[in-house]
Structure formats: structure tokens, C-alpha cells
Amino acid sequence: MATATMQAVRFHRHGGPEVLELETVPVPEPGPGQVRIRVRAVALNHLDLWNRRGLPGRTVPLPRIPGADVAGEVDALGPGVAGLDPGARVIVNPGISCGRCRACLEGRDNLCPHYEVLGNRTDGGYAQYVVVPAANVIAMPGRLEFVEAAAVPLVFLTAWHMLVTLARLQPGETVLVWGAGSGVGSAAIQIARLLGAHVIATVGSADKVARAQRLGADVVLDHHRQAVDEEVRALTGRRGVDVVFEHVGQATWERSLRSLTHGGRLVTCGATTGYEGLTDIRYVFSRQLQILGSYMGSKGELLRLLPFVEQGRLQPVVDRVLPLAQAAEAHRIVEERRHFGKVVLQVP
Description:
Strand content: 25-35%
Distance between the termini: 25 Å
Helix content: 25-40%
CATH class of the largest domain: Alpha Beta
Order of helices and strands: EEEHEEEHEEEHHEHEHEHEHEHEHEHE
Shape: globular
Oligomer: single chain
């Protein structure tokens, strides 16, 4: 019997977007406890770019199919899987954990020693089919189409974990959100507004200002043309903000710390501009600042935020949709920051 095949985008070596190749590969078979998903849409994340380029100290087995944010339909169940119907419309929780360790059993699966993100060390969703653990399959919010649904999991889960769980943002507090045009930045603005906070957001070009305002930002600054920390001080009567939502890294780190009020919290999930942020330790202890590291979030947190998506109170922001075959161009768009929100690949 001939082996069933599918279309998938893979990279066989690290490098620029040109290393992404559309290929014909075998359809994966679900093993015990796994589910095969017929992928309809997959959203891009910066993690896809980092894995493609190669990260110091991290090994990505090659060749690799990237893609963490998947929306599609249940196609086949592996041995021992029940409660999922073929054809059901689903999204995938992109964080994969062992399900057995203490962190997993306590509901903090993103602290699992074996935690991985789909498309990193396991093949992801830039393909017609993907196999994932049954525990990661979640019913798709009914009001969404596949493209919108693919734009939800990673960025909303990350922003929720940062603002709700770690920073404990409160009604009436002020938060500075860097990079409102990114997927995680656009999610953070909405979550902060949902929590009743005052939002100062930054963008990198004038054409993104109005879009950030429509999402709920009270004030929008151009971080290329304005000294953000000085503007924040002026806007808050020299007080500073209660929380900084940081994911840019080296280029913004010092300004982020200077933007905080006494007792403020900086929560960070990324370093897209570099890993080495200069920190004046005296400033940290004299102002009693908190620096909180964040990576993804738990399955329970994703389940808690999805009702707000279903109600339309949190809405995925899709900048543009490209076919799977144009994955390399999609990567270029994200690398060059030509997007506002998510770039999504539609899978034929």
C-alpha cells in the first residue's frame, strides 16, 4: 500500500526565509494518546523565525516543520484517545508537556522540565496534517473562522500569563505595552483593557497609531521618534507606570526600567532585538522593582481566556493571510515588521 503524502513547509538548514521549502512528505500517524489534525490555518510567531535562523545553545532537529498556532479539524485518533469526534473544529494549545511531573499535576505545565512549543523539537503546523497530544486539543471558539482562530492561542496565552498571572495587573493601574503591532502586543492591549487598566502603547510607525487606539490603547507613542521613558514620565506626572509589558529586549530594556514607578513590575517574555539588557541594580532595589520572567502559560489559563474570545471581548487581530506556499514571504513580512497583529498561512 502506498504511503499517504501531504504538502508541508520545512527547513533542512538554518538561515534566512529562503531555507523554507514546500515539499511532499508522508502524512504523520497518531501514536498512543495523540490526535491528527487536518490543518486549515497556522499563524506565524517570532519563535518560528528564531527556530529557522537557529538559536545559540538550542538544538532544533532537522529537517523541521515549524508552526505553533494551529486551527483545523480532528482527522484521526491514536490508540487510547476518546471524547474527540472526527471533523470537530479545534485549536491546538501550542505548549507540550509531559503531563506527569509535579508542575503538570499542579496545573503549571509551562514549568514542566520537558516543556516544548509545537514546531520546535516536534513538527508543527506548516503542513496539511499535524499530530499533537490529545490533551492539547481544544474546541475552537464557535464565532471564529479558522484563520482567526489560529491567531489566538500563543499570543493571548502569553499575554494573559504575563499580565493576569504574573504581573497581577489591577483595575486603575497603568501599563506600558511595547510593540503594539506585534501579535503579543495587540493581545496585551486588549487584556489590559479587559482588566480595567490604563494603557500606554508603542508602535514603530505612524500608520499603526490608529490601529493601536482602536484596540483600546489610551495613548500611543512612536518608539522610533519619541523618548518613551521621558514621555511616560510626562504622561504620568513623573510617577511612572505600574507595569511594563516587555518583549523587545536589548533595545528597550533600560527605558522599560526607567518607565516604572516605585514598586513597579516589569514582565518579559522575549528579546527580539538582543539578549543583553543593561540593568543598574541600584535602581532595581532602591525603587523596589520586580522583574518577572514569563514563558507561555498553562493549559488552564488558555481555557480561562477563551470564553472572552467567544464573547468577542478579546479579538484576534489578523493583518494578512497568505497561502502555505508563501511561507517564506510571510517570514519576511514579520522580520521587516510590516504587519500589525498576526500573519496567518492558509493551508490548502
